[in-house]
Amino acid sequence: MGNYAVKEKSTVTKFPVQGIESNSGKRPNPGSPNPEYKRDENKKAMDKELIMQAIKESFVKLDPRKMVKNPIMFVVEFGFFITLILSFAPDLFGSSAVEPWFNITVSLILLFTVLFANFAEALAEGRGKAQADSLKKSKQDIMANKLKPNGKTENVASLTLRKGDIVIVSQGEMIPGDGEVIAGLASVDESTITGESAPVIKEAGGDFNSVTGGTKVISDQIKVRITSDPGESFLDRMISLVEGAERQKTPNEIALNTVLTSLTLIFMIVVVAMPFFTNYLGFQLEIPVLIALLVCLIPTTIGGLLSAIGIAGMDRVTQFNVLAMSGKAVEAAGDINTIILDKTGTITFGNRMASDFITTGEVTKDKLSHWTALSSLQDETPEGRSVIELLNQKGFRIDKSAVNGGNIIEFKAETRMSGVDLPDGRKVRKGAVDAVKNWVKSQGGRIPEDLDQKTEEIAREGGTPLAVAVDNQIYGLIYLKDTVKPGMRERFDQLRKMGIKTVMCTGDNPLTAATIAKEAGVDEFIAECKPEDKIDVIKYEQNQGKLVAMTGDGTNDAPALAQADVGLAMNSGTTAAKEAANMVDLDSNPTKIIEVVSIGKQLLMTRGALTTFSIANDVAKYFAIIPAMFLLAIPEMDALNVMRLDSPMSAILSALIFNAVIIPLLIPLAMKGVSYKPMSSNALLKRNLTIYGLGGVLVPFIGIKLIDIAISLFI
Ligand SMILES: Nc1ncnc2c1ncn2[C@@H]1O[C@H](COP(=O)(O)OP(=O)(O)OP(=O)(O)O)[C@@H](O)[C@H]1O
Ligand SMILES: [K+]
Ligand SMILES: [Mg+2]
């Protein structure tokens, strides 16, 4: 396994891309305009319902037992209670000079501050709940035909099925649980899960045998071995994921929360200590004013929006038809340094088709065709089938009986060969050229002199050469053609701008790999890579302190998917792969990892940007509130009123009102995420500090001044 850097300039023959359908997700990209008017209508109705529900929830969440989970907002709620009491008993904590209307106003603003924060969280949770409800509907009362030991079937409720049970599912029936097809083949409608109405083929053996409970068989019949116990199915997991029932704060979120809570504690100590100093200096501070000061100082903006940002980030991934098993996985995606991609099917279309047969040495075309046919008659891979198709096209008469009684050698990524052992003892193989060469050499065979040159010609064009051999003789080559998906170069350019390295791992030979790597523009590639080599690549990168993402679908990808910091499994893949990964792409589009990374980055950036904004906001609030506080006690110190606010009372209320309304104003940003352009993290940091740091300082000056002008009209 070598590590080849891709050279910049290349002399690659590019294949024209002819009308091949991309297998990218059929859903619109997040944020892209929705062309369907009717769906927009529905969406509006749903949004209205979501908002009503969220308003209701905001009040439910006022329960102090729930509020404690958010210490910052809990402090605000506590402030609300105190000022509320003071509204009716102004002298409860000693004589007070402020009027009751001021206390009532402060307590109302504080109440709204908490409600706004609750609303943000409830709104973010709402979308997932709506989706969970529709998923739950597809779960109800499925009946299953369970196979009994005596060979008969009995009709049981799907809820009674356990791991290892075997069920028969026929045309028109729902698959009662997650499982693996152990016999038969069927087309399955998975739209309940994937939203994609085109049926998919599920068959026993191989990488397409996993089925999901709640999906529907639309033709034929399959025998399924159940792989999950009640309550632990994919659909169950999906429901609790989108519902947020299992939502746990991520390490990043916990860390930020700790910082914000500590900050709150420090401000509390400062504010509580203040009266002692001022008493000593001979003047008195009012309790509601101190509470107002405290609430303005503590980071309520980010405290109110933090969980909404996290939930919305997860939700964006879900809207994109990717199931993330945890918020941690989404965040990790945002910090990824290296992405491991495979070539076939990810960077190229993957419909590698035989396009030519090339003889080597003295072999005749017919001889090569004969052995090629034998090597592929029982090879059910797309490559194998395309070989037979090409032979048919070329008019070669295939004698199917020649392999009767033979022993099929299935293609394996480990051996990189497939073929048949004939009853007469002869062994027929086709496969990666180096693998076949080694195999032939190990039997004392000779390598034709023109083999390497002919192999190179194919590889230089980006094709995959397969050698065909019988026992100790090589007969020639099969030329498999594949095409790089359009737009790959732009995608890799974007990733490079984000500072992310792409590594293509392929089982193909170094020359083909180099050609495709250059054409697609990946940073590095590893050729002749066996599945277990991928783990080594991941570990190597991780040992250098990098976070690594990879995609995969096969059982042999499972260990690497588990090792990667972000493992994205294809829904079409095996159960093992899906269980090992921390994300599943329901559209089974491996290039989606790139979008997942963008969403993760956006989540981290949004959190950072709003934290910066929230803390920068404080500057303006100091200038409004602190002078006002002293002015209340010592009216002669008018020079303190730098913002030229109308009155001390109005200054305090303006700062508090700004502090409250900024939360709902920022909800759209928290939900949608800050706009994200691919660039280096340094450039990003600078950009965000300018926008959200500087903006965070300036905006409240303007906002508070405007609110003050409005208030001065009333008092
Ligand atoms: N049906 C087949 N019979 C024999 N050899 C095959 C067959 N399919 C592929 N090969 C050979 O085995 C190699 C490895 O195949 P494998 O599918 O593991 O990786 P790959 O598709 O080339 O790379 P990637 O990891 O990018 O998908 C191929 O490059 C090819 O040379
Ligand atoms: K605040
Ligand atoms: Mg492959």
Automatic annotation (TrEMBL):
PROSITE patterns: ATPASE_E1_E2
Chain spans, region Disordered: 1-40
Superkingdom of this protein's organism: Bacteria
Species the sequence originates in: Metabacillus lacus
This protein's UniProt keywords: ATP-binding, Cell membrane, Ion transport, Magnesium, Membrane, Metal-binding, Nucleotide-binding, Phosphoprotein, Potassium, Potassium transport, Translocase, Transmembrane, Transmembrane helix, Transport
Name of the gene: kdpB
Recorded family membership: Belongs to the cation transport ATPase (P-type) (TC 3.A.3) family. Type IA subfamily.
Subunit composition and interactions: The system is composed of three essential subunits: KdpA, KdpB and KdpC.
Job description of the protein: Part of the high-affinity ATP-driven potassium transport (or Kdp) system, which catalyzes the hydrolysis of ATP coupled with the electrogenic transport of potassium into the cytoplasm. This subunit is responsible for energy coupling to the transport system and for the release of the potassium ions to the cytoplasm.
Name of this protein: Potassium-transporting ATPase ATP-binding subunit
